[in-house]
Amino acid sequence: MSYPIKFLSLQKAELDYEVTVRGGTGGDSVSELRKQIVKLSSILPSEDILESHLEPSEDLKAVKESLIKSHNNIISIKSKFDKNLFTRTENLLHHIYHRLNRINYATADVSDIYKVCNTNFNSQYKELTSFKPNAQNTQVGTSPSEPVREPINVSVTCERKFNSEIGKLKFSGKTCVRAFIQKVNEFILSRSIPQEKNLAFAFEIFTDDALHWYRCIKDRVETWDEVVVLLKQDFSQNDYDYRLLAEIRARTQGELENITIYIAIMRGMFSRLGKSLPEEDQLEILLHNIRPCYASTLASSANITDIDSLQNICRNYENIQSRLKQFREPPKVSADTVAPEFAYTKQATTSNSNINYKNYKQQSHNFNPNYSKNYSNNYNHYNKSKTTSNLTQQENHKLHVNEMTPSNDNNRKYVYCPRWLNNDNGYVCYK
């Protein structure tokens, strides 16, 4: 049997004990103690605290005061049942149970007091559970000298925080009803809210037109599932599936969107459809809408029968591309290199200047025997032009600087450049 404690409903004396037994500093105000217990209770549950920090006599004195409070509450419940008072009394007895289990009653001076307190606790708890409808009449201890020590699953909740989170799930009737239903169902699942309590949140989450609607239908529903059916019936668009399917077919993969996120989003869109789409149809849409960069990879895997296989193949392609982008050339050997004999040595390559020089030497050996004849003819032509012209030597040079006299050979064409005559080297330009 579990004895959960809602710490925020405890009074100052009991709350101060719960804080100090967990190593807290205590406080003068209830609000300060509540702030500490919210943090400490999540770190140190009640069943993890095996011993009290107080002396047994001091601890038992406080237990007797708490038992007096619970006894007075039970008397009030007997005269007129009050649900809130019943909850507070039950929570107080749970606090007393854990406190008694932490007291070392082996010494003779406190053993009698401990037996009395334990007997009073057992009788009060049994009497309180009899007031609760359909409650299990579980006896806490078999012996008045020692309460039952068994594993306890403590559930600590903050009702104020819980209600504030519920209030964030607002629905006015003007937003997507299916997105709202999904959020509420996920909230119910994450908080492990019982089915019978789901309807209690309706007045907190419905606003404006949706609140008027719920007040009209609340007498016709008994469960949240029935509310969901009516929500879809009254607030969904008639052509919602048709329009959503068009959006699904148009939703292609973004440029910077990886395949895992894209498929997760598409599956979320598929789940919004009122009539589920077969997986082969979903796969066909995904194959048309993913990025073209996967085409070469998918071409080698023609037998893709499910979405998971498609995701694995595309994800493997993305991993390979990521490795290609991260590739770097091997580092050069430096003075700090520990093992230079294992470093990569780049092979020496012939430079372009050396290649050009070899080509020039090869061409110089291929001398044409008609060179002398062509040289004489060109030289006479040059002298004749020089004597008959009144131009200066500088102007004559400018005139003939681009003059080229071709000389035909079997395989090559020789040309003449007058600039080279001044050097007296006899060079011939040929193509």
Tell me about this structure.
This protein has 431 residues and is mainly alpha-helical. The protein has four domains: 7-129, no CATH class; 159-235; 240-325, Non-ribosomal Peptide Synthetase Peptidyl Carrier Protein, Chain A; 370-430, no CATH class. Helix content is 55%, strand content 2%. It contains 18 helices and three strands. The chain has a three-stranded antiparallel β-sheet, with no helix packed on it. Helix 3 runs parallel beside helix 5. The N and C termini lie far apart (107 Å).
Brief sketch in words of this structure:
The protein has 431 residues and is mostly helical.
Largest sheet: 3 strands, antiparallel
What is the total number of structural domains? 4
Q: What form results from the Cα inertia axes?
A: flat
Task: Report low-confidence residues grouped into runs of 5 or more.
Answer: 134-162, 386-391, 397-405
Strand order within the widest beta sheet:
1-2-3
Main structural class: mainly alpha
The Rg value, from CA coordinates, equals: 48 Å
Sequence of secondary-structure elements? HHHHHHHHHHHHHHHHHHEEE
Number of DSSP strand runs = 3
Strand content: under 5%
From the N-terminal CA to the C-terminal CA, the straight-line distance is 107 Å
Helix residue percentage? 40-55%
Summed up, the helix count is: 18
Give the overall average pLDDT: 75
Domain Retrotransposon gag: 201-288
InterPro entries: Retrotrans_gag_dom (IPR005162)
Pfam families: Retrotrans_gag
